[in-house]
Amino acid sequence: MNQFGLCFNSSNYIFLQTQNGLTPLAKVARVHYVKCLNNPIRREVPSSYTNAIVKKETVKKTGKKEHHLWMKKDSVGSGQKALNLVRIVSELPNEKEAVYAALDKWTAWEAEFPLVAAAKALRILQKRNQWLRVIQVGKWLLSKGQGLTMGTYDTLLLAFDVDQRIDEAESLWNMIVHMHTRSVSKRLFSRMITLYDHHSMPAKIIEVFADMEELGVKPGEDTTRRVAHAFPKLGDEGKQKLVLKKYLNKWKYIHFNGERVKVRREAWVE
């Protein structure tokens, strides 16, 4: 096998060492001492060569500038728009035509539908317990094909419950189940069961619970208790025990001597 190496002499010439001898390559201005590749003696290396190595090691890689295919919409000002919407609808008479006309005017000069502002307005109206306005704004959103989210549905169902609009709640619920069958959240199932429980409709509670089981949605503790209490009202106490045994957690947390303690549920009288 051929042996090659870089060597330097006192006259600062660089040579390529092979089996056939030394071949001069170039002259350098300044050298440092290193070992030759095939000869363990001290040899000279040009400073430009070592400087290049140092510079290469110390160069920091600059990160690539990221380019996104999407741009986050600027929601600055949506809070003010929401407050403006709340002010507008709060000053209107309780007439659907007047409310819808004002809402259409509110969006007339918007380049894009102000969905974020409308959602914030719904939350503000809910906190202020202005349930009629929640219903009006929510139904207007749905009529525009906007706000078709579980959050909007939940707010509307709650408003229908408080305002005792059971028929409208059922119509909305049927629409939700038809459109989102496999993606209806546990929260919405619980909301509908709570609504029926508030208005003493045990048969409807069992219907919604049957849909939950069919879709594999596990009820929470509060929903489980409401369903369990509905069965005796329908004369079926046996299923009440089955539901509690299947879905009620065997463990619960209680506060004892100032501490949160985990205990078996059967050991305590409910």
From TrEMBL:
The highest taxon in the source lineage is Eukaryota
What is the protein's name according to its record? Pentatricopeptide repeat-containing protein
Q: Which organism is it from?
A: Coptis chinensis
